[in-house]
Every structure is written in structure tokens, then in C-alpha cells.
Amino acid sequence: MKKYICLVIILLSGLTASQAQRMLPNQKGLEVNAGVLSFDKLGSAYYLGIGMIMNGRNGNYGLWEMQYTHLYHTYKEITIPVETYTAEGGYSIFLLGDSRKNIALNLALTGIVGYERLNRGETVLYDGAKILSKENWIYGAGGQLRFETYLTNKFIISLQGRTRAIWGTDLELLRPSAGLGLRFNF
Q1: Regarding predicted confidence, which is higher, 183 or 121?
Q2: Which residues have C-beta within 8 Å of that of residue 36, sequence separation ≥ 6?
Q3: Strands 61-75 and 78-97: what pairing?
Q4: Is 109 helix (H, G, I), strand (E, B) or coil?
Q5: Which residue of 4, 28, 103, 153 has the fewest CB atoms within a 10 Å radius of its CB?
Q6: pLDDT score of 15
């Protein structure tokens, strides 16, 4: 009889462990994400990022991220690459989700600083044309809408819609994007 009681206790403790608490305050997570900047230029306009998440209370969290953005502008028959290196920091607010935090919809507001590089530093093109836009230090603000769901207690997948307002650049001010992220909580 003692053997069966011990077995039931072990099984019950295993069940409660599989439904562990999620988004605990001060829990940290490492996130890798990638996405597209334009659905017209799939494969040539993308971003890659790696970030750190620190959970707060009630499903809110702080986020810090380093991001690389790559896109092309066309000139005659050539493409001119534009690369952006940014650091981003902000806070995400829990909007909607279930009580166990299996799924969540969050809104994040961020600040952005970085550097933008055009045509790998070359200002003169093959035909003698000169690029008037310059490489610049950039800064700005961003907004993100994230739909997140837990794959396991440690892994989270997120669908992200972003927009950034970038100043200090000779290119476009508003830069929307959509992407996918994978986070590991530790």
C-alpha cells in the first residue's frame, strides 16, 4: 500500500511540475528573432536579432535587444545594400491572455540607438553616380505587438509586428516589420 501511495504522490508532483508557473517576476529569458521588412522584397529585406527579457509583475517585462537589419534599394540594374545595427531597450505591457499565461498579447514601447551604413561605405557607383545619403548614427522609438505562446515551460514562440520611427537618417522615417521569435527562459 505504501508503494502505491508513494507512486500517486510522485505522479501528482510530476503533474504539478508540468504546469509550472510562468512569467515569474525576475525570471530572465534569451530571445532570438528574425523577420521581414517588406513582403515585396522577401529574402532581401530582413532583420535578425538577439535579446534579453526580464519578467516583471502581471505578465509585463523589460526587453533589451541587439538587431541587424539588411535591405536593398535598386538603382538601374544594381542593388544598393543598406545595413542598420541597432540596440533597443524598452518595456512590454501585458494586454490579453489566459490566466495560466499559456498565450499572451503584449504591447512594447522601446527606445532605439544605432548606426546605418549605405553601400558598404562606397559613395560612388559603377557609372560615376554619387550616393547623396550618408552613413549616420540613428536614434528613435519603436512599438511592438507580440503574440506569445509557450511551447514548453522554458520555450516560448512569439509572432511580432513592429514599427520604428528612426531619426538621424537620410532614408525613410517609419520602418514596419513582421517576424517570429523563439525565447528560452532560465
Answers
A1: 183
A2: 42, 45, 46, 47, 177, 178, 179
A3: antiparallel
A4: strand
A5: 4
A6: 45
Farthest-apart Cα atoms in the chain, separation = 90
pLDDT at 4: 66
Q: Report d(CA 118, CA 141) in Å as an integer.
A: 21
pTM over 0.85: no
What's the confidence (pLDDT) of residue 153?
84
Domain map of the chain by residue range? 27-185
Residue with cell 517585462: 61
Above pLDDT 70, what percent of the chain? 89
CA distances to 104, 122, 147, 158, 159 from 96, in Å:
6, 47, 9, 14, 14
DSSP 40-94: TTTTTSEEEEEEEEEE-STT-EEEEEEEEEEEEEEETTEEEEEEEEEEEEEEEEE
Secondary structure element (H or E) that encloses residue 35, with its range: strand 28-36
Strand segments (E) across 76-173 = 78-97, 103-118, 136-150, 155-167
Would you say residue 17 has pLDDT above 60? no
Are 184 and 174 contacting, i.e. CB atoms less than 8 angstroms apart? no
**Contact status, residue 160 vs residue 142, Cβ threshold 8 Å:** no
